[in-house]
Amino acid sequence: MFEVRQGYKSKDSKRQNGDIDNIAVAWAQGYMPVFAIFSGQIDDDLVLRYRNSRGGILVGRIDGGSTVSLFGFCKDVLGFDLADFFKRNSPTIQKEVHETLEALLKA
């Protein structure tokens, strides 16, 4: 089971406790819970707390192996270079985000 997040900087205890509850439920249902966080914006103490609760976390950092880095996991396990995908498609992604935000802000 994967939960995908853009970034995670929250020190909100309700969010953390909800995440830890979800980790326990996932294990009880036979899933291996993993948070895939696309950015590197997560405090190390939160990573430690989730790992101590048996939750996996893959953080959006280029360095690190497939057990800690979302990009390393995608490359080594899935055979897909996600970092390269973002590098190649960055101008298109930026254009789409800009156009979407412009349309939303004009409404």
SSE topology sketch:
Layout: E1 2-5, H1 13-28, E2 34-37, H2 44-52, E3 56-59, H3 70-78, H4 82-106
Parallel strand pairs: 1-2, 2-3
Per DSSP E runs of 2 or more residues, the count of β-strands stands at 3
Strand order of the largest sheet: 1-2-3
Kindly estimate the percentage of residues that lie in beta strands according to DSSP.
Answer: 5-15%
Cα separation of the termini: 37 Å
Main sheet characteristics: 3 strands, parallel
Helix content: 55-70%
The unreliable regions are none
If you average the pLDDT, what whole number results? 89
Number of helices: 4
Question: What structural class should be given to the helix and strand makeup?
Answer: mainly alpha
Globular, elongated, flat, extended or rod-shaped: what is the shape? Answer: globular
Rg is 16 Å
Give helix and strand order, one letter per element, not per position: EHEHEHH
Explained architecture:
With 107 residues, the protein is mainly alpha-helical. It has a domain at 2-60. It is 55% helix and 11% strand. The protein has 4 helices and 3 strands. The protein has helices spanning 13-28, 44-52, 70-78, 82-106; strands at residues 2-5, 34-37, 56-59. The chain has a 3-stranded parallel sheet with strand order 1-2-3, sandwiched between helices. The chain starts with a strand and ends with a helix. The model has no long low-confidence stretch (mean pLDDT 89).
